[in-house]
Amino acid sequence: MSSPDLGSVSAPPPSAAEAHADIDARQVARLLHVSAVSVFVANRDDRGLHSVAASHPSARELDAIQTSLNGGPAYAAFHDGKVHSPAINGAADARWPAFAQAMGASPFAGASAVPVM
Questions:
Q1: Is-contact 113 77, C-beta < 8 A?
Q2: Considering the entire predicted model, what is its pTM?
Q3: Helices 73-80 and 57-69 sit at what angle, rounded to 10 degrees?
Q4: Please, are residues 95 and 112 in contact by the beta-carbon 8 Å criterion?
Q5: Of 64, 89, 67, nearest to 78 (Cα)?
Q6: What is the rounded CA–CA span in Å between residue 17 and residue 3?
Q7: In which element (H, E) is residue 85 found?
Q8: In this structure, are residues 55 and 108 in contact, taking their beta carbons and an 8 Å threshold?
Q9: CB neighbours of 39 closer than 8 A, spacing ≥ 6?
Q10: What tens digit of pLDDT does each residue of 91-117 get?
Q11: How far is it, in rounded angstroms, from Cα 18 to Cα 52?
């Protein structure tokens, strides 16, 4: 089974509310001195994760990949409550091999996840 890449999973354009949240995400990225930030929230009804903000279109696409795979750093942080060190772009990552492979098409060097509760 092949994993999705940034060309095969595309995120829909943000709504007006998401666009405002994206502005906030860009400010967080500046504060943290990172290239991009995205924010997932948990839904109590379906216990799933939903991407609600991203500071960069490619970050939103990586969110869509994690959602399609139901796995990756954000999902791991949600399920175990731990910080997950970067999934390195282009490196084989035993934790999320499909996500790591799909990330190869992104402009980012890595992806980390920090749960906020």
A1: yes
A2: 0.72
A3: 60
A4: no
A5: 67
A6: 31
A7: strand 84-88
A8: no
A9: 21, 25, 51, 52, 53, 54
A10: 667 888 888 888 877 888 788 888 887
A11: 6
